[in-house]
Amino acid sequence: MKPQNNFTFDEATHIYRLDNRIIPSVTQILQAEGITDFSFADESDRNFGKAGHKVTELWDKGILDIKTVAESLIPCLEVWKKFLKDFEVTIFPGAIEKHIFSSRYSFGTTPDRVGLVNNKVTVIEIKFSKSIQRSTGIQLAAQAIASTEHYGKVRQRIAVPLLNGKPQFFNDRQDETIFISALNLWRWKNEK
């Protein structure tokens, strides 16, 4: 059952609003509470990741013009296509880089994909790196909370690093508890 709220996302400022009130993003919460750290990523890495996300998004929407894809991204696209086939992935219509929120916990997030992986509702994180940070499990737990409100009970969380192609499933139930704790701490520090 989809929540019926006034929800917006401002792309330029990366601000989520729910019922005309600013709500925190998952990234904002995890960074503020020291769970994630992207200081190691330079502008070149960020640009590569953004371009790669766009390529996979256009592929999944069936509108990618392969002639426009940078040569450096072709191997990543091939890894993504292999993942989709090997894990029998069906992306939910409209669940590609879609901005969503949790009405229960009042935060915003943008899962890369939500769909069926081996017939189980799954939140999928696409990474343009060789390894996956431990904090990705917590990020995906937060996305699973919001995605459950919009798409039905999320049964799996998975990250797909497109530079090595070895998907990683996250099963630690503490990930959700850690996220809720981080959210509560963020609120305690920021909402007066």
Strand order in the largest sheet: 4-7-8-9-10
Biggest beta sheet summary = 5 strands, mixed
Count of distinct strands: 10
- Remind me, CATH topology? Lambda Exonuclease, Chain A
Question: Order of SSEs, N→C?
Answer: EEEHHHEEEEEHEEH
CATH architecture: Alpha-Beta Complex
Low-confidence stretches: none
CATH class (first level) name: Alpha Beta
- Count of all domains: 1
Helix content: 25-40%
Described by the principal axes of the CA atoms, the overall outline is globular
| Radius of gyration, taken over Cα atoms and rounded to an integer in Å | 16 Å
Roughly what is the average pLDDT, rounded to an integer?
A: 92
Distance between the termini: 32 Å
Given helix and strand content, the structural type is: alpha+beta
How big a fraction of the residues is strand? 15-25%
Number of helices: 5
Description:
- The protein has 192 residues and is α+β, with helices and mostly antiparallel strands.
- It has one domain: Lambda Exonuclease, Chain A (Alpha-Beta Complex), CATH 3.90.320.
- The chain has 5 helices and 10 strands; from the N terminus they run βββαααβββββαββα.
- The strands form 3 sheets. It has a 5-stranded mixed beta sheet with strand order 4-7-8-9-10. A 3-stranded antiparallel beta sheet has the order 1-2-3, with no helix packed on it. The protein has a two-stranded antiparallel ribbon with strand order 5-6.
- Strand 2 and strand 3 form a beta hairpin.
- The longest helix has 18 residues.
- The relative contact order is 0.16.
- The model has no long low-confidence stretch (mean pLDDT 92).
